[in-house]
Each structure stands twice: as C-alpha cells, then as structure tokens.
From TrEMBL:
<protein>
    <recommendedName>
        <fullName>Water stress and hypersensitive response domain-containing protein</fullName>
    </recommendedName>
</protein>
Length: 176
C-alpha cells in the first residue's frame, strides 16, 4: 500500500507541476504580447473646410513575436487636452446621413494580428463644436496637439483570457 500511495503522490505532484508550468507560460506569453502592442496616430484632418467632420486615422502595431487576437476597441480623440469626440460620441437626430451604428461605446473587431503585423483604422468623426475647438488654437497661433486614447479588448490565444489594454498616441501639426 505505501508503494501505491507514493506513486499517487508522484502523479499528483507531476500534474500540479505541469498545471503550474502551463499557467506561468500563459501569463508570461500574455504579458509579452501586450507589451509589444503600440498605437500610432497617423492623421487627423477635416473632410472639407465647411464640415464639422474629421477623418481620424490610427495604426496598431504588434511588435511582439506572438499573435494577438483583438476582440473589440473604443477610442477618444483629444485636441489640446480637451475631449472632442470618439467612438462613444452622441449623434444629433437632425443629421440624417450619420450612421448611428458607428457610435456604440465598443466596436467588435474580431481580428488576429500576427507577429510584426499592423492594423490601420480610419474613422469619420462628427464634432459638434469643432469651430470653437479649432478657433482657440488658431487665436493663439499654437500647433494643434491631437491625441487619441484607445482601449483594446484582447483575447490571448493560449489561455483565452480577456484583457483590456489602454494605449495612447499623439500627433502635433501646425495651425491650419
């Protein structure tokens, strides 16, 4: 009987060791993949001079050696530290051509970024007080300081754990 008990202890010990090793490797892998993601704000421009709409472009880089599965995202755009809109912006009912489905808080993306791959994203953003925001920067003759704060919900391929990653990027351009 002592031989059977000792064998069972070895089996349980090896099983516990294997489970611990798997958990640690999943955790380290998830940290590595999250650490390799970078956000770049590439362009913010008006659709035309009379429009209150901005085209916002940003790029997500996966600089890690592990794939990252994106589940959803949200973002906010700032001008000189003031939030002027984002994926959770509200819409006005008197603008018939606005697609209301674009204004949900988090948008599903469900895409896997391979190692060293990038994802370019472009959004049309309606800003109700755009003239006021731009006017203050033009009066001071200061460069426009744009920044985007984005959140990406990631699903790690090995553990299927979900993690929210917040990233920020800035772009400075001369006063129009």
């Amino acid at each position: 009987m002592p031989h059977v008990a000792r064998t069972l202890l070895y089996v349980f010990g090896l099983t516990a060791l294997a489970a611990t090793w798997q958990a640690v490797s999943n955790y380290v892998g998830s940290l590595e993949s999250v650490r390799g993601l970078e956000l770049e704000l590439t362009e913010v421009r008006r659709v035309d001079s009379d429009s209150a709409q901005l085209v916002v472009q940003f790029r997500l880089h996966n600089r890690s050696e592990l794939p990252v599965q994106l589940n959803s995202y949200f973002f906010d755009l700032y001008l000189d530290g003031n939030r002027i809109g984002g994926s959770s912006s509200t819409w006005r009912d008197d603008i018939p051509d606005v697609d209301r489905s674009l204004y949900t808080r988090a948008s599903t993306i469900e895409q896997t970024l391979a190692p060293y791959e990038r994802l370019d994203m472009e959004f049309l953003l309606h800003v109700f007080d755009l003239e006021n925001f731009l006017g203050a920067s033009q009066e001071n003759s200061e460069p426009l300081n744009w920044s985007v704060k984005a959140g990406f919900r990631l699903i790690h391929p090995h553990s299927h754990d979900e993690r929210l990653l917040r990233l920020q990027a800035t772009l400075q351009e001369p006063v129009p």
